Amino acid sequence: MFKKLFTALLIGAMTLTALPTQAQTTTAEVKPILTMIRGMWVAVREYDGNDLLYFTMLESYRCGLDGVKYGINTDVADQVWKQETCYVDEAAPNAMKMEDGLPFISLELGSVESVIVEITYDDGTTDTETYARKAIMTP
User: Fold this and answer.
1) pLDDT (mean) for 43-69
2) Exposure of 61 in the CB half-sphere (CA atoms within 13 A)
3) What is the model's pLDDT at position 5?
4) What is the pLDDT of residues 74-130, one digit of tens each?
5) Contact 24, 64 (CB under 8 A)
6) What is the C-alpha separation between 25 and 94, in angstroms, rounded?
7) Which of 78, 54, 53, 76 is nearest to 67 (CA)?
8) Where are the domains positioned within the chain?
9) Kind of pairing between the strands at 137-138 and 43-47
């Protein structure tokens, strides 16, 4: 019971901390948030006979990133995730218009066992995280 309450409070605190107070278009603005939520950079969902690998969280903070690479069932991030444009001249630069595609890829059902993600910030620094399927499954 205490563990569930603590988890709910922690998630609530992270949500409040992550509320936008600036445009969030630079490394300085997005790196603290992405560091805090690194366990949620990607997600896997079984849907309509496929594994869907979502990059929604990284798309939400893409304006402070120069790129995202990933690898499936490997320890090498050798595939490039094509990010949506950052709309720097608009009121909501991180808005997801999804004009060039959706924030996920579709793969064969059960094929995603692990995912490695490497993000490059606009200042040239990088962060990498590896996920087991079980850790990133969503209902």
Assistant:
1) 97
2) 26
3) 44
4) 999 999 999 999 998 888 898 899 887 899 999 999 999 999 999 999 999 999 999
5) yes
6) 8
7) 78
8) 22-138
9) parallel
Decide if 57 contacts 42 (C-beta within 8 A): yes
CB atoms within 10 A of CB 50: 17
**CA-based R_g, the chain, Å:** 15
Q: What share of the chain is helix, strand, coil (3-state, %, to 5)?
A: 30, 30, 40
Q: Is the CATH number 2.60.40 carried by domain 22-138?
A: yes
- CB of 71 within 8 A of CB of 78? yes
The single-letter code of the amino acid at 96 is M
**pLDDT value at position 22?**
57
